[in-house]
Amino acid sequence: xxxxxxxxxxxxxxxxxxxxxxxxxxxxxxxxxxxxxxxxxxxxxxxxxxxxxxxxxxxxxxxxxxxxxxxxxxxxxxxxxxxxxxxxxxxxxxxxxxxxxxxxxxxxxxxxxxxxxxxxxxxxxxxxxxxxxxxxxxxxxxxxxxxxxxxxxxxxxxxxxxxxxxxxxxxxxxxxxxxxxxxxxxxxxxxxxxxxxxxxxxxxxxxxxxxxxxxxxxxxxxxxxxxxxxxxxxxxxxxxxxxxxxxxxxxxxxxxxxxxxxxxxxxxxxxxxxxxxxxxxxx
Length: 283
What we know:
- The protein is an alpha/beta fold.
- The protein is built from twelve helices and eight strands.
- The chain has helices at residues 16-29, 46-50, 52-69, 78-93, 95-105, 118-134, 169-176, 200-216, 227-235, 250-257, 263-267, 275-280; strands at residues 2-6, 32-35, 73-75, 115-117, 143-146, 180-181, 221-224, 247-249.
- A four-stranded parallel sheet has the order 2-1-3-4, with helices on both faces.
């Protein structure tokens, strides 16, 4: 199983631990990732808010590079995922857009391959039963709230691998790892990530509401699949450090459950350390 891997900007910078865990987990699960050579920013969010054509061609160049590799694309960042999927859908239906891309980049693109989020690949290609067979360190006692955010499963006409209002893929994956998954109403609510710099108080309030909802549901930590959500959920929590709720990337917890040796080093990059919580559970 081989995919053209698009890391995106965040995984090369503030979400380095996400990239490290993605690569390690995929290797462990037999998913070969071939990084797209000379990839560029997908255009989210500054690109598409400035110029629709610019955003489409930024994403389109990455699609064309991956098509030249002859394989589907695997993406870990939902913002990148939705930009690539949108460009893929539009260019598949619009020959003029494809011609413009070729004129700008010198690359041809025929929309022959698909773009998939890594969560979709693990749940629906690897399969949860196969994943369960590889678990050597079940996450028993770890009470988690699965957080999908805005872009992972919406809009359904673009992404469409899980229910847009009550998604279950991440919940089922965490359950497979042995964790106690709490059902809660905030799983697809916005965290305010796009407001984190322009309207910090509003973003802080939105994060506070999400954390409180997760706590009321009995969760001790949240699990995200988005580097923007992860950063915002960590940065905008109020209160003393001891009262802050840790936030994991789903691939970090897969790595922990699979017994990947370097998993502990990923958590050191977090703004809110989960080490105390994990140690209390013998994890």
